[in-house]
Amino acid sequence: MNAWINLAAVAKILLFGLLVGAAVPAVFAAGVRLNAIGAGSPSGSPRNRVLIGVSWVLVALVLAVVVVGVVFIARDFIGHHTGWHILGAKSH
């Protein structure tokens, strides 16, 4: 550890940024692609319900990650105004 920079903290932030910055959009893109593949074609090929279902699960997972992220950022505000101290919010 340097006197000015905490390298362990920098590594954790970098890893989390790569995970959220790359993995979540990739999961969303996979969901959209599976939905397109499973939708069938205008020429009459049937819909693939399994691919459609998996695509909805992936998109719902991304939506859940986004909601948890927003709630995590606003946890102190939510705890102050509602009394619900969630995700490690400070209790005043």
Automatic annotation (TrEMBL):
The chain crosses the membrane at residues 53-74. The keyword Transmembrane helix applies. This is Transmembrane protein. Keywords: Membrane, Transmembrane, Transmembrane helix. It comes from Mycolicibacterium wolinskyi. The lineage of its organism: Bacteria, Bacillati, Actinomycetota, Actinomycetes, Mycobacteriales. It comes from the Bacteria.
